[in-house]
Protein backbone atom coordinates (compact mmCIF):
# COMPACT_ATOMS: atom_id res chain seq x y z
CA UNK A 1 0.00 0.00 0.00
CA UNK A 2 2.90 2.35 0.77
CA UNK A 3 4.37 1.75 -2.67
CA UNK A 4 1.04 2.45 -4.32
CA UNK A 5 0.64 5.72 -2.42
CA UNK A 6 4.13 6.72 -3.43
CA UNK A 7 3.31 6.16 -7.08
CA UNK A 8 0.15 8.26 -7.00
CA UNK A 9 1.76 11.14 -5.10
CA UNK A 10 4.23 12.10 -7.85
CA UNK A 11 3.83 13.40 -11.36
CA UNK A 12 5.46 11.78 -14.36
CA UNK A 13 7.94 13.65 -16.56
CA UNK A 14 7.54 13.19 -20.32
CA UNK A 15 10.75 13.49 -22.33
CA UNK A 16 9.00 15.26 -25.20
CA UNK A 17 10.22 15.73 -28.74
CA UNK A 18 11.28 19.37 -28.96
CA UNK A 19 14.13 21.51 -27.71
CA UNK A 20 15.00 25.17 -28.34
CA UNK A 21 16.92 24.59 -31.58
CA UNK A 22 16.03 25.64 -35.11
CA UNK A 23 15.49 22.07 -36.41
CA UNK A 24 13.14 21.36 -33.52
CA UNK A 25 11.29 24.64 -34.04
CA UNK A 26 10.73 23.66 -37.67
CA UNK A 27 9.54 20.23 -36.51
CA UNK A 28 7.19 21.88 -34.03
CA UNK A 29 5.53 24.03 -36.71
CA UNK A 30 5.37 21.04 -39.08
CA UNK A 31 3.57 18.99 -36.43
CA UNK A 32 1.23 21.89 -35.64
CA UNK A 33 0.40 22.12 -39.34
CA UNK A 34 -0.24 18.38 -39.63
CA UNK A 35 -2.34 18.42 -36.48
CA UNK A 36 -4.51 21.23 -37.87
CA UNK A 37 -4.79 19.55 -41.28
CA UNK A 38 -5.77 16.24 -39.70
CA UNK A 39 -8.48 17.79 -37.53
CA UNK A 40 -9.80 19.83 -40.45
CA UNK A 41 -9.73 16.91 -42.90
CA UNK A 42 -11.48 14.46 -40.59
CA UNK A 43 -14.04 17.05 -39.50
CA UNK A 44 -14.85 17.89 -43.12
CA UNK A 45 -15.16 14.20 -44.02
CA UNK A 46 -17.41 13.63 -41.01
CA UNK A 47 -19.55 16.64 -41.98
CA UNK A 48 -19.92 15.43 -45.58
CA UNK A 49 -20.98 11.96 -44.46
CA UNK A 50 -23.55 13.36 -42.03
CA UNK A 51 -25.09 15.93 -44.39
CA UNK A 52 -24.97 14.32 -47.85
CA UNK A 53 -27.71 11.73 -48.35
CA UNK A 54 -25.66 10.04 -51.10
CA UNK A 55 -23.10 9.11 -48.44
CA UNK A 56 -25.66 7.55 -46.10
CA UNK A 57 -24.44 4.03 -46.82
CA UNK A 58 -22.88 1.38 -44.57
CA UNK A 59 -19.36 2.01 -45.91
CA UNK A 60 -19.50 5.72 -45.15
CA UNK A 61 -21.16 5.13 -41.78
CA UNK A 62 -18.15 2.99 -40.81
CA UNK A 63 -15.85 5.60 -42.31
CA UNK A 64 -17.45 8.28 -40.11
CA UNK A 65 -16.45 6.25 -37.06
CA UNK A 66 -12.90 6.02 -38.38
CA UNK A 67 -12.88 9.83 -38.69
CA UNK A 68 -14.01 10.14 -35.06
CA UNK A 69 -11.14 7.90 -33.96
CA UNK A 70 -8.70 9.84 -36.13
CA UNK A 71 -9.81 13.05 -34.42
CA UNK A 72 -9.41 11.49 -30.97
CA UNK A 73 -5.89 10.09 -31.52
CA UNK A 74 -4.05 13.40 -32.05
CA UNK A 75 -6.28 15.37 -29.65
CA UNK A 76 -5.23 13.00 -26.84
CA UNK A 77 -1.50 13.54 -27.35
CA UNK A 78 -0.43 16.44 -29.58
CA UNK A 79 -1.89 19.44 -27.63
CA UNK A 80 -0.10 18.26 -24.47
CA UNK A 81 3.20 17.94 -26.35
CA UNK A 82 2.82 21.42 -27.83
CA UNK A 83 1.84 22.97 -24.49
CA UNK A 84 4.87 21.41 -22.81
CA UNK A 85 7.14 22.90 -25.48
CA UNK A 86 5.60 26.38 -25.23
CA UNK A 87 5.62 26.36 -21.40
CA UNK A 88 9.05 24.78 -21.11
CA UNK A 89 7.83 21.84 -19.00
CA UNK A 90 6.99 18.19 -19.39
CA UNK A 91 5.21 17.03 -16.26
CA UNK A 92 1.91 15.18 -16.30
CA UNK A 93 -0.13 14.14 -13.28
CA UNK A 94 -0.74 10.52 -12.41
CA UNK A 95 -4.42 10.94 -13.33
CA UNK A 96 -3.55 12.72 -16.57
CA UNK A 97 -1.15 9.95 -17.50
CA UNK A 98 -3.81 7.35 -16.74
CA UNK A 99 -6.37 9.18 -18.88
CA UNK A 100 -3.95 9.55 -21.77
CA UNK A 101 -3.03 5.87 -21.67
CA UNK A 102 -6.69 4.80 -21.40
CA UNK A 103 -7.89 6.85 -24.37
CA UNK A 104 -4.94 5.87 -26.55
CA UNK A 105 -5.63 2.20 -25.85
CA UNK A 106 -9.37 2.68 -26.35
CA UNK A 107 -8.96 4.31 -29.75
CA UNK A 108 -6.21 1.95 -30.87
CA UNK A 109 -8.16 -1.23 -30.13
CA UNK A 110 -11.39 0.26 -31.50
CA UNK A 111 -9.65 1.18 -34.75
CA UNK A 112 -8.18 -2.32 -35.05
CA UNK A 113 -11.65 -3.82 -34.79
CA UNK A 114 -13.25 -1.19 -37.04
CA UNK A 115 -10.74 -1.63 -39.86
CA UNK A 116 -11.33 -5.38 -39.88
CA UNK A 117 -15.11 -4.88 -40.02
CA UNK A 118 -14.68 -2.36 -42.84
CA UNK A 119 -12.89 -5.08 -44.81
CA UNK A 120 -15.91 -7.34 -44.28
CA UNK A 121 -18.13 -4.56 -45.64
CA UNK A 122 -16.00 -4.40 -48.82
CA UNK A 123 -16.11 -8.20 -49.12
CA UNK A 124 -19.91 -8.22 -49.00
CA UNK A 125 -20.14 -5.29 -51.43
CA UNK A 126 -17.90 -6.92 -54.04
CA UNK A 127 -18.61 -10.62 -53.60
CA UNK A 128 -22.33 -10.51 -52.62
CA UNK A 129 -23.72 -7.26 -54.06
CA UNK A 130 -27.30 -8.57 -54.33
CA UNK A 131 -27.34 -9.49 -50.65
CA UNK A 132 -25.54 -6.32 -49.52
CA UNK A 133 -28.67 -4.43 -48.32
CA UNK A 134 -29.67 -7.38 -46.13
CA UNK A 135 -26.20 -8.34 -44.84
CA UNK A 136 -25.25 -4.74 -44.11
CA UNK A 137 -28.58 -3.41 -42.87
CA UNK A 138 -28.70 -0.66 -40.26
CA UNK A 139 -28.90 -3.00 -37.26
CA UNK A 140 -25.79 -4.88 -38.42
CA UNK A 141 -23.85 -1.63 -38.92
CA UNK A 142 -24.79 -0.42 -35.43
CA UNK A 143 -23.74 -3.78 -33.98
CA UNK A 144 -20.39 -3.58 -35.80
CA UNK A 145 -19.70 -0.05 -34.56
CA UNK A 146 -20.86 -0.90 -31.03
CA UNK A 147 -18.57 -3.94 -30.99
CA UNK A 148 -15.61 -1.82 -32.08
CA UNK A 149 -16.11 0.79 -29.37
CA UNK A 150 -16.94 -1.77 -26.67
CA UNK A 151 -13.80 -3.80 -27.43
CA UNK A 152 -11.75 -0.63 -27.07
CA UNK A 153 -13.32 0.33 -23.74
CA UNK A 154 -13.02 -3.24 -22.42
CA UNK A 155 -9.34 -3.75 -23.29
CA UNK A 156 -8.36 -0.21 -22.26
CA UNK A 157 -10.09 -0.52 -18.88
CA UNK A 158 -8.33 -3.78 -18.03
CA UNK A 159 -4.86 -2.89 -19.27
CA UNK A 160 -4.85 0.63 -17.84
CA UNK A 161 -6.01 -0.51 -14.39
CA UNK A 162 -3.48 -3.37 -14.29
CA UNK A 163 -0.61 -1.13 -15.46
CA UNK A 164 -1.34 1.57 -12.90
CA UNK A 165 -1.58 -1.05 -10.14
CA UNK A 166 2.20 -1.57 -10.33
CA UNK A 167 4.33 0.57 -7.98
CA UNK A 168 6.40 3.32 -9.60
CA UNK A 169 8.91 4.05 -6.87
CA UNK A 170 12.01 4.64 -8.98
CA UNK A 171 12.40 7.18 -11.77
CA UNK A 172 9.23 8.97 -12.90
CA UNK A 173 10.78 10.13 -16.17
CA UNK A 174 8.94 8.50 -19.09
CA UNK A 175 11.33 8.09 -22.02
CA UNK A 176 8.50 8.63 -24.48
CA UNK A 177 6.42 11.38 -26.09
CA UNK A 178 3.32 10.54 -24.05
CA UNK A 179 2.01 8.04 -21.52
CA UNK A 180 1.86 4.77 -23.41
CA UNK A 181 1.71 1.37 -21.81
CA UNK A 182 5.08 -0.15 -22.90
CA UNK A 183 7.00 2.98 -21.89
CA UNK A 184 5.31 3.18 -18.49
CA UNK A 185 5.99 -0.47 -17.63
CA UNK A 186 9.73 0.19 -17.89
CA UNK A 187 9.48 2.51 -14.87
CA UNK A 188 7.89 0.00 -12.51
CA UNK A 189 10.05 -1.27 -9.65
CA UNK A 190 8.05 -4.52 -9.55
CA UNK A 191 8.52 -7.61 -11.70
CA UNK A 192 6.33 -7.02 -14.78
CA UNK A 193 7.60 -9.93 -16.89
CA UNK A 194 4.44 -12.02 -16.44
CA UNK A 195 2.24 -9.08 -17.36
CA UNK A 196 4.41 -8.22 -20.37
CA UNK A 197 3.98 -11.81 -21.57
CA UNK A 198 0.22 -11.53 -21.12
CA UNK A 199 0.35 -8.20 -22.95
CA UNK A 200 2.12 -9.81 -25.90
CA UNK A 201 -0.48 -12.58 -26.01
CA UNK A 202 -3.32 -10.06 -25.92
CA UNK A 203 -1.50 -8.11 -28.65
CA UNK A 204 -1.62 -11.21 -30.82
CA UNK A 205 -5.38 -11.50 -30.26
CA UNK A 206 -6.09 -7.79 -30.71
CA UNK A 207 -3.92 -7.43 -33.82
CA UNK A 208 -3.61 -10.81 -35.53
CA UNK A 209 -7.30 -11.77 -35.42
CA UNK A 210 -8.38 -8.57 -37.20
CA UNK A 211 -5.46 -8.90 -39.63
CA UNK A 212 -6.56 -12.46 -40.42
CA UNK A 213 -10.09 -11.24 -41.17
CA UNK A 214 -8.71 -8.45 -43.36
CA UNK A 215 -6.41 -10.78 -45.33
CA UNK A 216 -9.21 -13.32 -45.81
CA UNK A 217 -11.71 -10.66 -46.89
CA UNK A 218 -9.40 -9.03 -49.40
CA UNK A 219 -8.18 -12.38 -50.71
CA UNK A 220 -11.79 -13.21 -51.59
CA UNK A 221 -12.33 -9.68 -52.97
CA UNK A 222 -9.26 -9.97 -55.20
CA UNK A 223 -10.50 -13.27 -56.58
CA UNK A 224 -13.93 -11.77 -57.31
CA UNK A 225 -12.43 -8.65 -58.95
CA UNK A 226 -10.20 -10.70 -61.25
CA UNK A 227 -13.28 -12.62 -62.43
CA UNK A 228 -15.17 -9.44 -63.35
CA UNK A 229 -15.69 -8.93 -67.09
CA UNK A 230 -16.32 -5.18 -66.90
CA UNK A 231 -13.17 -3.04 -66.79
CA UNK A 232 -15.14 -0.20 -65.19
CA UNK A 233 -16.41 -2.48 -62.41
CA UNK A 234 -12.88 -3.77 -61.77
CA UNK A 235 -11.52 -0.23 -61.60
CA UNK A 236 -14.22 0.91 -59.17
CA UNK A 237 -13.68 -2.11 -56.91
CA UNK A 238 -9.90 -1.66 -56.94
CA UNK A 239 -10.17 2.07 -56.21
CA UNK A 240 -12.49 1.61 -53.24
CA UNK A 241 -10.58 -1.32 -51.75
CA UNK A 242 -7.10 0.10 -52.33
CA UNK A 243 -7.96 3.13 -50.20
CA UNK A 244 -8.87 0.88 -47.29
CA UNK A 245 -5.84 -1.37 -47.80
CA UNK A 246 -3.56 1.69 -47.69
CA UNK A 247 -5.10 2.83 -44.39
CA UNK A 248 -4.85 -0.69 -42.95
CA UNK A 249 -1.18 -0.98 -43.93
CA UNK A 250 -0.25 2.36 -42.35
CA UNK A 251 -2.05 1.72 -39.06
CA UNK A 252 -1.32 -1.97 -38.53
CA UNK A 253 2.34 -1.66 -39.53
CA UNK A 254 2.97 0.81 -36.72
CA UNK A 255 0.79 -1.06 -34.20
CA UNK A 256 2.46 -4.43 -34.83
CA UNK A 257 5.92 -2.89 -34.36
CA UNK A 258 4.91 -1.21 -31.10
CA UNK A 259 2.90 -3.95 -29.40
CA UNK A 260 4.02 -7.28 -30.89
CA UNK A 261 7.77 -6.79 -31.33
CA UNK A 262 9.47 -7.26 -27.92
CA UNK A 263 10.79 -4.04 -26.39
CA UNK A 264 14.39 -5.32 -26.43
CA UNK A 265 14.34 -5.19 -30.24
CA UNK A 266 13.58 -1.47 -30.60
CA UNK A 267 14.92 1.67 -28.95
CA UNK A 268 12.95 4.50 -27.27
CA UNK A 269 13.77 6.71 -30.26
CA UNK A 270 12.19 4.17 -32.63
CA UNK A 271 9.18 3.94 -30.31
CA UNK A 272 8.75 7.72 -30.48
CA UNK A 273 8.77 7.73 -34.28
CA UNK A 274 6.31 4.84 -34.53
CA UNK A 275 3.98 6.32 -31.91
CA UNK A 276 4.04 9.66 -33.71
CA UNK A 277 3.25 7.82 -36.93
CA UNK A 278 -0.03 6.27 -35.77
CA UNK A 279 -1.04 9.12 -33.45
CA UNK A 280 -0.52 11.98 -35.93
CA UNK A 281 0.62 11.01 -39.42
CA UNK A 282 -1.92 8.26 -40.12
CA UNK A 283 -4.94 10.27 -38.84
CA UNK A 284 -3.80 13.17 -41.04
CA UNK A 285 -3.39 11.00 -44.15
CA UNK A 286 -6.63 9.00 -43.81
CA UNK A 287 -9.07 11.71 -44.96
CA UNK A 288 -6.73 12.58 -47.85
CA UNK A 289 -6.53 8.94 -48.91
CA UNK A 290 -10.30 8.50 -48.90
CA UNK A 291 -11.13 11.87 -50.48
CA UNK A 292 -8.51 11.78 -53.24
CA UNK A 293 -9.40 8.25 -54.33
CA UNK A 294 -13.15 8.39 -53.84
CA UNK A 295 -15.39 10.01 -56.43
CA UNK A 296 -18.46 10.20 -54.16
CA UNK A 297 -16.56 12.18 -51.54
CA UNK A 298 -15.10 14.47 -54.21
CA UNK A 299 -18.57 15.19 -55.63
CA UNK A 300 -19.98 15.83 -52.16
CA UNK A 301 -17.15 18.24 -51.32
CA UNK A 302 -17.54 20.04 -54.65
CA UNK A 303 -21.27 20.42 -53.96
CA UNK A 304 -20.63 21.96 -50.53
CA UNK A 305 -17.96 24.32 -51.90
CA UNK A 306 -20.25 25.35 -54.75
CA UNK A 307 -23.06 26.13 -52.31
CA UNK A 308 -20.71 28.13 -50.09
CA UNK A 309 -19.38 30.08 -53.07
CA UNK A 310 -22.86 30.78 -54.39
CA UNK A 311 -24.00 32.10 -51.00
CA UNK A 312 -20.95 34.35 -50.66
CA UNK A 313 -21.65 35.84 -54.11
CA UNK A 314 -25.24 36.52 -53.15
TrEMBL record:
The chain crosses the membrane at residues 25-48, 60-78, 98-120, 140-158, 201-225, 237-261, 273-292. CDD domains: 7tmA_OR2T-like (cd15421). It is a multi-pass membrane protein. The keyword Membrane applies. Keywords: Cell membrane, G-protein coupled receptor, Membrane, Olfaction, Receptor, Sensory transduction, Transducer, Transmembrane, Transmembrane helix. It is found in: Cell membrane. It holds the Pfam family 7tm_4. Residues 41-290 form the G-protein coupled receptors family 1 profile domain. Belongs to the G-protein coupled receptor 1 family. This is Olfactory receptor.
